[in-house]
Amino acid sequence: MVTVFLPPAWRDLSGGQTEIRLEASTVRQVLFGMEGSFPGIRERAIANDSLKPGLAVAINGTVSRLGLRAPVPAEAEVHFLPALGGG
């Protein structure tokens, strides 16, 4: 099972819950799985079949650029974070 850590901005949808464990093999499956428990998560995370601008996903501590297509290994830790920019 994958452990997903919810960002503070989503905790109003989770009743304050900070993490969830679920079965998933891609970031898309993670978000669709979370939607079953926390309606509204997909709307906060997905726009035009991509992660919303300003949102990044880290899988086992590495930020992925593959968005919803990113593979998620079994027993992975997934964090949704505000995307960082700069120069």
List the helices and strands and how they pair.
Blueprint: E1 2-5, E2 19-22, H1 27-37, H2 41-45, E3 46-47, E4 50-51, E5 55-59, E6 62-64, E7 77-82
Parallel strand pairs: 1-7
Antiparallel strand pairs: 1-2, 3-4, 5-6, 5-7
CATH superfamily: Beta-grasp domain
Shape-level CATH architecture? Roll
Q: What is the CATH class name?
A: Alpha Beta
- CATH T-level topology: Ubiquitin-like (UB roll)
- Number of helical regions: 2
How many strand units? 7
Can you describe what's shown?
With 87 residues, the chain is α+β, with helices and mostly antiparallel strands. It has one domain: Ubiquitin-like (UB roll). 18% of the residues lie in helices and 30% in strands. It contains two helices and seven strands, in the order ββααβββββ. The protein has helices at 27-37, 41-45, and strands spanning 2-5, 19-22, 46-47, 50-51, 55-59, 62-64, 77-82. The strands form two sheets. It has a five-stranded mixed beta sheet, with helices on one face. It has a two-stranded antiparallel sheet with strand order 3-4. A hairpin with a 2-residue loop joins strand 3 (46-47) and strand 4. The longest helix has 11 residues, at 27-37. The radius of gyration is 12 Å and the shape is globular. The model has no long low-confidence stretch (mean pLDDT 94).
